[in-house]
UniProtKB/TrEMBL annotation:
SUPFAM superfamilies: cAMP-binding domain-like (SSF51206). PROSITE patterns: CNMP_BINDING_3. InterPro entries: cNMP-bd_dom (IPR000595), cNMP-bd_dom_sf (IPR018490), RmlC-like_jellyroll (IPR014710). Residues 18-58 form the Cyclic nucleotide-binding domain. This is Cyclic nucleotide-binding domain-containing protein. It comes from Duganella vulcania. It comes from the Bacteria.
């Protein structure tokens, strides 16, 4: 089970079972995390940096 030590305060309110199932991942700038229409596979919590939502209109 993942330790609660070192977690950001925003995550301490989550259920410990959910915390135990988390992974810490790092993505390089410009990496696509998800696309419109794709089935959600992950819940992202951005600790540092930003996620940019880009809308493509035709």
């Amino acid at each position: 089970m993942r330790s609660l030590d070192g977690l950001p305060p925003e995550l301490l309110g989550f259920d410990p079972v959910l915390i135990a199932a988390t992974k810490e991942l790092q993505y390089p700038p410009g990496r696509v995390l998800f696309r419109t229409g794709d089935r959600p596979r992950w819940l992202f919590f951005i600790l540092q940096g930003q996620a940019l939502l880009q809308r493509v209109t035709v």
